[in-house]
Amino acid sequence: MSNQAATVQLRKDWDGGVSPFGVSYGKLFMWFFLVSDALTFSSLLCAYGFMRHKFTGAWAKPNEVFNDFPFVSRDLPLAYVGFMTFDLIMSSVTMVLAVEAGHRKSRKEVIMWLALTVLGGLIFVGSQCWEWYHFITGSAEHQRAVDFWMNGKHIVNQHFEGANLVVNAYTALPTFGDFFFCITGFHGFHVFSGVVINIIILIMVAKGMMDKRGHYEMVEKAGLYWHFVDLVWVFVFTFFYLL
Amino acid sequence: MSTFFEEYPDYPNYEAAANHDEAHGKQIRKKLWMVFWVMLIVTLIELFIGAFFSEQLGELNKEYTFIFFTLVKAFFIVFVFMHLGDEKKALKYVIIAPYTLFIFYLAFMAITEGVYSNFLTGVGDALSAAALSH
What we know:
The complex is a heterodimer of chains A (243) and B (134). Chain A has helices at 2-10, 25-54, 62-65, 79-103, 107-137, 174-206, 209-213, 217-242; strands spanning 143-150, 153-161. Chain A is mainly α. Chain A has a domain at 43-138 and 189-242: Four Helix Bundle (Hemerythrin (Met), subunit A), CATH 1.20.120. In chain A, strands 1-2 form a two-stranded antiparallel ribbon. In chain A, helix 4 (79-103) runs antiparallel to helix 8 (217-242). The N and C termini of chain A lie far apart (53 Å). Chain B is mostly helical. Chain B has six helices and no strands. Chain B starts with a helix and ends with a helix.
């Protein structure tokens, strides 16, 4: 072990035989994947910003659309989204604690923190289901007469609540609903995959595979992905719900 | 069949090199929890402004305020939670530089070239008309 450390010191970074970035190839390529994924989300949010500014005034006010909270009375602007943000940040913290425990090779702690992370992810996905359900079914508070085309017929002045890809009751623009479904759906799918990855890693840790390898880097790589999901949500939260 | 490390005994074991002891771990945990509190407070401020002051602030000021807070949170997530701050300079640049370049390019395109959408006819006009009539 000490022999290897000495080799790192002697060699120059770009002379070959060592990683110039000082990380294993697995972690490096997880970073590269995250950069490309971040660009996908950036272009989605950029397109959103473009449409939002093109139709300023006609766009829905998010604190009037998302003002519902489960089991509580109505009109709490952004409270539930705030809870979802808190939940995701909290699960990010438990993930980073799992990574830290992994660096100490403390299997028990890794299992505990990873399980809490999975729980936080499941709460988030569940919350998003609830949010979608409410957005789609709508409420009496948001209703409007809409015109749209269906099966080749132009339907005029139809009373409408909720939202779909063609019309929504929150604005006259279908674009608002489309972007909501596209961006939060894409992010929600990332969260779902993250939960699945975390469960797989949790099983691997519980079976003692990381101890056999002598390191818990797999937890760290899954953690990178999970933090990225949190990072994206921070931006979606700002651009979609706050602005 | 031999493993990679048997074949290249000189190659440094980066995975195991990341391990640390209990004393160091305690320090790291303290830092992580501090960052958590900072992020929580920033989120609460954002929510407070978003729920109660979004009308008074004015459109442009609001956007700058929220983008500033978001970038603060993004910095903490990437540099502390994802440990990019502890990585080598080469890795930091290889992650941050291409992304930043593309983002500036994308935002520039959306902001400066976006005005041309006002000259479009067809779908855009129909949408604008629909938006105004309701």
